[in-house]
């Protein structure tokens, strides 16, 4: 299983161009769980007057970390995964600083994986910027 986790981290950080472009960094990965860092960039500001992070970045990060957590329950060389439902509640404005995003698999079935995700600043881990849920379709081969 450990080699699967290493492979997921490698794919996540080095073989998904969108994740590379956004600078996503996998910090922790275990079966049913993923944690990543989104290093702040000025390009992520969606509200210039107060330097607030754009909600679209947070939603993208929630989906990415959710997919990584869901992938830990798959047979990587055989199974395929795709997001089929994604929802989020934006709870606090994101500041001009790094964001940590975590995901936990709630249930991994034969064809569907359910995941909960949340995002926060490392300086205020108790204050969630966003919380989400995702459903991933799995094609097990």
Characterization of this structure:
- The protein is of the alpha+beta class.
- The chain has one domain (2-139): Roll (Thiol Ester Dehydrase, Chain A), CATH 3.10.129.
- It is built from three helices and eight strands, in the order ααββββαββββ.
- The strands form two sheets. A six-stranded antiparallel sheet has the order 1-2-6-7-8-5, covered by helices on one side. A two-stranded antiparallel ribbon has the order 3-4.
- Strand 1 (25-30) and strand 2 (33-38) form a beta hairpin.
- The mean pLDDT is 94.
Helix-residue proportion: 25-40%
Architecture per CATH nomenclature, i.e. the level-2 architecture: Roll
Order of helices and strands: HHEEEEHEEEE
Question: Which descriptor suits the 3D outline?
Answer: globular
CATH topology: Thiol Ester Dehydrase, Chain A
Q: Count of DSSP helices?
A: 3
Strand content: over 45%
Mean pLDDT: 94
What is the count of distinct domains? 1
> How far is the first residue's CA from the last residue's CA?
18 Å
Number of strands: 8
CATH class: Alpha Beta
Low-confidence stretches: none
CATH superfamily: Hotdog Thioesterase
The largest β sheet comes out as:
6 strands, antiparallel
Kindly name the structural category.
alpha+beta
Strands side by side in the biggest sheet? 1-2-6-7-8-5
| Rg over C-alpha atoms, rounded to the nearest angstrom | 15 Å
């Amino acid at each position: 299983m450990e080699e699967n986790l290493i492979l997921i981290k490698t794919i996540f950080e080095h073989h998904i161009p969108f994740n590379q472009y956004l600078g996503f960094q996998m910090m922790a990965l275990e079966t049913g769980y993923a944690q990543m860092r989104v290093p702040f960039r000025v390009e992520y500001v969606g509200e210039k007057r107060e330097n607030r992070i754009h909600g679209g970045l947070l939603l993208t990060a929630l989906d990415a970390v959710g997919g990584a957590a869901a992938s830990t329950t798959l047979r990587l060389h055989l199974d395929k995964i795709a997001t089929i439902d994604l929802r989020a509640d934006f709870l606090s404005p994101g500041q001009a600083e790094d964001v940590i995003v975590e995901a936990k698999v709630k249930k991994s079935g034969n064809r569907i994986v359910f995941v909960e995700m949340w995002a926060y600043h490392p300086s205020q881990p108790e204050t969630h910027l966003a919380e989400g849920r995702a459903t991933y379709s799995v094609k097990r081969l």
